[in-house]
Amino acid sequence: GATYRDLGNPTAGDRVVTLTSVKDSGGTANGGVDTTTSGLPAAETVTVARLNHAPTLTTTAETPTFVEKGGAVSLFSGTAIGLGTGDGGQTIRQLVLTVSSVSDGAAEQLTIDGTAVALVAGSTTTSGGATVVVTVAGSTATLTVTRGGDFTTAAAQTLVDGLTYGNGSVDPTAGARVVTLTSIRDSGGSGAGSVDTTALSAAATVHVTPVNDAPTLAATGAVAADTTTAIVSLFSSTAIGTVEAGQSITGLQLTVAGLADGPNEILVVDGQAIALDVASSGTTAAHGLHYVVAVSGTVATVTLTATDTPAHWQGVVDGLGYRNASTVTGTSGDRVVTLTSITDDGGTANGGVATATLARAATISVVVNSGTPSITPPTVAPFIDLQRQTLSGFALSDTLGGSLYTIALTASGGSIHLDLTGIGVTAGANDSGSLVVTGSKAAVEAALASLAFTPTRFGSVSLTLTVTVGDSVLIGGMKSGTTTLEMVSAATPPPAPPVEPPAPPPVVVPPPVVVQAPQIVVPPPPPDVPPPVAWVPPTLLSAPAEGAFRVPVVSGPVRAGGDAGTVVVVNRIADVVVASSGPIAVPVPFDAFGVTQPSVVVSLEATTADGKSLPDWLHFDSATGTFVGNPPPGARTVEVKVIALDNNGHSVAQTFKITLRPGGQTMLEHSPIDRPGGAVGRQGLAAQIRAAHSGAHRQILALAGSAGTPVTR
């Protein structure tokens, strides 16, 4: 019944148990023997095997907060690892831990043995030689840490105390990550009842706090020249992001630099035109964007606000446009539109950034239509009698140009004819004294090549052409140039019929006002009739000067105290009906006014009939005597007044109507000047000759043989 037991920390090995003697209780009196050493059982050997004891680990688990973009946070501290009693010399072979609620893939990492290990399936060797194997099930990552040659307890303690958590995502998932040490195993083995592994439950809870990132914007800014009043697109291929999913964009700010044309400079936002000359605010009709405009010097700052998706704001940026509506004047130069900032609704908590600073720019170079067109006339030989002659050779030139050219032709002493193929007629008519046509430069040049002129009188005749270049949408508006071609009909009038005897006695007339030969001498009118103005073929024109409008020299009454010359009305200006389907040009006839002395300088002005300024769409070129403009749609009548002023302080005026009729035909209404006693307006020379032949004007037509000596026919 004898047994062996070791109650201490046994040393492995054999234990030999030997029965060496047996002694009874009889004693040894009288030679008795109570002990024997023979015949005893053989010795027994007990083999002692030592058992392994599980290791121990104690630590303090932390509860840190990880803030986006912050440094990794420590998980455990004060770690102590022990081996079982009598297990001295053993090592730590394995450590297992888990991380729950993993949501951000490889961006979530634990630093183990000095090396960042991503919490995705795989194997990583640390800088200290450890091997970390990661497996993932659902949102839980399990990490098993081993090392060839194992860890000393001290090295294992350092490894646990060095564990940290980090998250490199720019949009980390908020919430807790629980890092749990689940087991530790030593090198003592587990055979014959030994235990080498201890289950653990030390857990560190990491609170992950996201921080708002500034939104992003990429766009291609336009670099373009702007010559028209049309809208120019500013940006394209815009891409906007909020970084954090589900956020919205709440605002955008931009500046427009280089402003110089007041309310004519316009920013188009969400389809709405916003003037950039003064501070303003409002809401766009299309999508309810609120805008605020602030102006400082030549720079306007525009702030747009609305809470909407990045995709919607991309459309807003791609839809931004610039427009310069200057149709009369304008300022050339660059307008630079810069996107300066964009804001999302992520806020600024924990150091977040809601607004990104931008420098995306578009540059629009405004080019004002400053080209001055010109017409170079051909050299024309004298006419043979009153025959049609082609006047080819007119040359057009301009420095800027446009898609539309308007030519206004006005004849004095003749009629005009053009081949109208490819061009439109906006006023006047073929085979008359006035014609206005429009078309491309090539079409207008082709029409001018066919220009024919038919004189309606002998002597001096003329043709005035005014070219207007550019569409009404050009910045700076349309520009005009004028030339006058003066011509002579070489034939003389037919002789007057013989005077039947008895010839009446010569009519004695007072000395006439002598202009230059040849001229028409007008006798004094009756006291109750205003003095008529007699027409002289325009061998002479009024004096030239800067901005002057040259008119024919005519004869008229002598003013008391000497005659320095004066401007007079010669022919009534006809009312005009114009088809209002595009730009118009209405010239004042060459011979509407005249002067009584060739030294007189005449200039023209124009107002409405009641003395007010012309409508915004209508402009009067005083040097060429032409009304030009681009009328708005619809029928309307404008009654205008043309005032002729001379350098001697005299002035006369005429009024006439310009009627705009959509789809109507262009026509002129010619009438003589109405004076008491009958119509006394200028007649053509041929008509005067015919009248002389009939005797109706025998005392009016005169030829001067020498200055001041009339010859009556």
Automatic annotation (TrEMBL):
InterPro entries: Cadg, Cadherin-like_sf, Ig-like_fold
SUPFAM superfamilies assigned to the protein according to its UniProt record, in alphabetical order: Cadherin-like
MF (Gene Ontology): calcium ion binding
Gene3D superfamilies: Immunoglobulins
Record-given protein name: Dystroglycan-type cadherin-like domain-containing protein
Signal sequence segment: none
Source organism of the structure: Siculibacillus lacustris
GO cellular component: membrane
Segments passing through the bilayer: none
Origin superkingdom: Bacteria
Pfam families reported in the protein's UniProt record: He_PIG
Domain Dystroglycan-type cadherin-like, first and last residues per copy: 568-667
